[in-house]
Amino acid sequence: MIVEADGGSRGNPGPAGYGAVVLDPDRTVLAERRESIGLATNNVAEYRGLIAGLEAAAELGAREVDVRMDSKLVVEQMSGRWKVKHAAMIPLAERARALVACFDRVTFTWIPRERNSHADRLANEAMDDAGTDAATGARPAGGAKTAERASTEAAPAPGWTGAVGRPTRLLLLRHGQTELSIQRRYSGRGNPPLTELGREQAARAAKMLAARGGIEAVVSSPLTRAVQTAEAAATALGVPLRTDQGLIETDFGDWEGLTFAEAAERDPELHARWLGDPSLPPPGGESFDTVRARVEAARRDLCAQYQGRNLLLVSHVTPIKTLLQLALGVGPSLLYRLHLDLASLSIAEFYPDGGASVRLVNDTSYLG
């Protein structure tokens, strides 16, 4: 397969975006990717385009990929002829190399800009989105690429939903490891800190998010394990951090600190029913229906406050699953069937007209 990718920034740094397209040898389009990434440089946007193109090719099952870009810098660095020196690009280059390792063969070829028009168009559409959000009305400057135009049209939702408007993008990060998670015990309102590995997981997630950029603020559950994870991300991003009670984990009541088997032995009938009925609370605890109500209230408030922007939420298994459930519009079975790893990232988008989409679930590729 062929991957053509591009990225640009109107201001360098400025409102930035990337585009990528995957084609077969006959140049039939197999997949397209584009995304505005907030304020970033040309080079960061170009690397993000490469990563998106490689991810799309992997999803299509490609084994051999010919990457074509008009960025001499990215092509030479990924070919190993130039060193990656800029701090912001090191994690991006590492992520791209990790994706390259998943294929049997990947080649990198520089092409002139006029031969990269498809990816260039997608990147400019993404920059239009970023520029509209920043409300600058400015034409490309510095190292920005092509198409000196500002779109006044609303960005459509992905797929066939018909949702319109710029979505509020919620990046959903689960906290890192604690002692209770090692022992696989119900960990709700108990407040264990991160383990040494948990702090390393938080640091790796923070590094990835800093390379990604474009995040307006960090909002965390008030529990220690989430706050410690959120602090690492907020520091790396250089954005404010606050807590929200709506993002706190389920209150497991008398089952707090018990293993699955111990809770089932203590209350066999109730535990069996609880596993399939979100209206039932644990003894002295909180039902999943109650969790859903407070998470939905928090989501509405945050989407209103940060409308059309990217927001990192650091929380726990149940609130994150609930937000994905709300975005997908599915029933409670998702709570029992979806697995989320420690320090994993998921992404849900909520549109001003009520539409929603899920872009990513349980990504842990940055943890090594």
SSE diagram, text form:
Blueprint: E1 2-9, E2 14-23, E3 29-40, H1 42-59, E4 64-69, H2 72-78, H3 90-100, E5 105-110, H4 117-134, E6 168-174, H5 179-182, H6 196-212, E7 217-220, H7 224-237, E8 241-243, H8 260-266, H9 268-274, H10 288-305, E9 310-315, H11 317-328, H12 333-337, E10 345-350, E11 356-363
Parallel strand pairs: 1-4, 4-5, 6-9, 7-8, 7-9
Antiparallel strand pairs: 1-2, 2-3, 6-10, 10-11
What keyword list fits this structure?
Rossmann fold; alpha/beta; 2 domains; Nucleotidyltransferase, domain 5
Number of strands: 11
Strand content: 15-25%
Overall pLDDT level: 87
Overall shape: elongated
Number of domains: 2
As for the CATH topology of the largest domain, it is Rossmann fold
CATH class of the largest domain: Alpha Beta
Query: Biggest sheet, in brief?
Result: 6 strands, mixed
What is the number of helical segments per DSSP (H or I, 4+ residues)? 12
Report the structural category: alpha/beta
Spans of at least 5 consecutive residues whose pLDDT stays below 50 are 132-160
Structure description:
The chain has two domains: 133 residues, 2-Layer Sandwich (Nucleotidyltransferase, domain 5), CATH 3.30.420.10; 200 residues, Rossmann fold. The two termini are 27 Å apart. The strands form two sheets. It has a six-stranded mixed sheet. The protein has a five-stranded mixed sheet with strand order 3-2-1-4-5, with helices on both faces. The protein is α/β, with parallel strands linked by helices and 368 residues long. About 8% of the residues have low confidence. The chain is elongated and about 65 Å long.
